[in-house]
Specification:
The structure holds 2 protein chains of 2 kinds. Chain A is of the alpha/beta class. Chain A folds into 3 domains: about 230 residues, 3-Layer(aba) Sandwich (Rossmann fold), CATH 3.40.50; about 180 residues, P-loop containing nucleotide triphosphate hydrolases (Rossmann fold, 3-Layer(aba) Sandwich); about 80 residues, no CATH class. In chain A, helix 12 packs parallel to helix 14 and helix 13 packs across helix 14. The longest helix of chain A has 16 residues. Chain A starts with a strand and ends with a helix. By secondary structure, chain B is mostly helical. Chain B has a domain of about 240 residues. Chain B has a 3-stranded antiparallel β-sheet. In chain B, helix 3 crosses helix 11 and helix 5 runs antiparallel to helix 6. The chains are: A alpha/beta, B mainly alpha.
Chain lengths: ~525, ~375
Amino acid sequence: MEHTSAIQLKNITKRFGKVVANDSVSLDIRRGEILSLLGENGSGKTTLMNMLAGIYFPDEGEILVNGQSVTIASPKDAFLCGIGMIHQHFKLVDVFTAAENIVLGLEDEGKLDLKAAAGKITDICQKYGFSIDPAKKVYDMSVSEKQTVEIVKVLYRGADILILDEPTAVLTPQETNQLFTVMRNMKADGKAMVIITHKLHEVMDVSDRVAVLRKGRYIGDVATAETSPQKLTDMMVGHAVSLNIERPAPENPTPRLDAKGLTVYDAMGVKRLDNVSFTAMGGEILGIAGIAGSGQKELLEAIAGLQGLSAGASILYRPIGTAEGDQGVELVGKTPLQIKKSGVSLAFVPEDRLGMGLVGSLGMTGNMLLRSYRKGVGFFTDRKAPRKLAEDVMEQLEVVTPGVNFPVRRLSGGNVQKVLVGREIAQEPSVLMTAYAVRGLDINTSYTIYNLLTEQKMKGVAVIYVGEDLDVLLELCDRIMVLCGGQVSGIVDARSTTKEEVGLLMTRFEKEAAQS
Amino acid sequence: MSAVKQHKEPLLRIAKRDGIARSKAYAIRIVAVLLSLVVSGIFIFTVTKLNPLQVYEAMFDGAFGSNRRSWVTIRDAMMLLCIGVGLAPAFKMRFWNVGAEGQVLLGGIVTAGIMLTFGSALPTPALLVVMAAASLLAGCVWGVIPAIFKAVWNTNETLFTLMMNYVAIQLTSYCVALWENPFGSNTVGVINQQTKAGWFPAVFAQAYGLNVILVLALTVGMFLYLKYSKQGYEITVVGDSVNTARYAGINVKKVTIRTMAISGAICGLAGFIAVAGASRTISTSTAGGRGFTAIIVAWLAQFNTFVMILISLLLVFLQKGSIQIASQFNLNDYASSVITGIILFFILGSEFFINYRVIMRSGKEASK
């Protein structure tokens, strides 16, 4: 099938200071085709697309839209060329409705006619198979609905070249399938589409062609039908990579954390966690699955002593080597510092890395200090040990940073995550909790992290892994606890369960509520 | 597609710098100062027909023209620096302490009170120690009150500290009325003018030597405290993200109150220096707006107390200079304020060129 070119990039180069983000990249984006842009973290995918969206301006090279050379100096220019980008972080006004957000910034003549806009929005939705309510406020929307608003927003402006930057990172498997249906409908309508994603099975599923970038260079493109995840990974990384997660059987697992009746209400009085009970075993990885916002965050924070729990809750901790009948230490009612002082070595990789796990304005050394600054009796902090640790983490996890004192806020997402995971594992924990430990990480680094977690498990650590990629949960974990609306909807054996079973458990209570 | 534009690069673009050599950053700042002098020179000439060089000479004369003037400039810069050093930990913690004005006044009131009451009872060294301790305590209390409200009830510290200023001003007015001397003057007058009891003694034959020593000691101490101490680390973490602080087991309430105690205490001590070390009297203008100016000092220096020395000196120099040119050339206050404004504008504006670079269409990168 012949496709006409929508966009041609010719020898695009973009530098940030000394870093070459894109090095003479040439790329074709065609109509009626879904192109996957693949590459490791920092390979320049988002930078390249941002130049099409008018956010960055290329240092060298030429952009042709429909065969004509154009200048895209601002997002407005991008829209004039028919290019619309859906960013990783949504840019919506919370207190506005869907329709208000969609027309926001348009300079139409005459009065603002929201009714006509709503009509046009409904037409777009019907055409491609979306469903949104134009009058719904954004703050009432789920993540997937917000994403739909973003997509409709660019379609409303007449975009026929759509760029989606990691659109599935925040979606459930079901929502992802919905999105892919819509994308196929748009493809049939002759639109050109680019999707950036790290998930190879999605690449295989939805795209027609795959273009691979590595370290800012264009490596090549292949038809999806003629390739495989293994081949793509090798192209991305530059050498062969094993895509199997090793899962040794747990060696005599012992109960480490015994949680009973955990109930959490948030500041607004909404029940976020509802009578959750489970046991985390030392020497195994307990996976936690669930739609985003099902209580994962509250559960981990409750264990870490950062959430107030309702009466009747109990979390008993048994250190490594505790005798059979030993009661253990009660963690409920203790502050994080008291938990630490009572001898619990708890490592926690929270979801909000810069907002909770790290100090953005400090460098790696300053962040290593966060766990150890109390050590020593003096008034002043010891900086030698954290500096050494920072250098070790930098080397072992291949953190890309100008130096150990460079503010971590200015590092890329993947590197920020490495700093956090590296510090937490270095604590030699007995319980290791991670929330979306590989979110935004490329394949290579993700597998490094999986291996680190398995290593910890074999050391007898109780690992709690909150994840979103069901394939990984099924391959990595020993048991999976599924949360739905703050309740435990099931705990299954990861070796014998299926993706479908877990997927159903994720929405179990919603369906039951709908039926009754 | 409605309009396809010609392939043309915009004339000017800006890009964020990754980092900049220290020497280059200073070069940019120096160029900014020189440019500001040129621009204000043009302003001076077009508006007043005066020779700009003479005007600059007069400014310098106003600040450093004589030994006495130099020491007054230094004394005032030290005062500003002292308050800035006091504000640094609070602002580093992102606690908007706009109440330095009140904290300084409280320190001043207790200093003046002790000076009046015990002036004849205690020898000056003992008196100084008592006054210093009392002013530290008074400023500390004035700083801790809003901190407790913030920590316990999460009140807005900006409004709270601001309101505390007005309470402090009223307290000062009350004390001025109480200690009025001579009767009917509505001022306290110079306290212990004959005995000089409780006045700062001359150090190295300099009347304001002690001011300099005290404030510089605080400057060094605060630098070490913020950068290398465990408590300073906690302040950085709380200022960056309260959630990260909780995650790390830091007691945010405790750190908030402790930091404001230190911040308020140093501002209180500034009141002691202002009364015992400079004016030897107390009035509602003892703080004189320095509590607010010091916020600029603290932020501009990015809480680096050594950089604050330079900024305090610059601000006081501009202030003294503009007073001098206003009187010497019969300019009104506004003209000299405009000159001060132009100079500050260029110095602040230079930070833009330190953080960003401008790229011309030809692809050549202008560094300035």
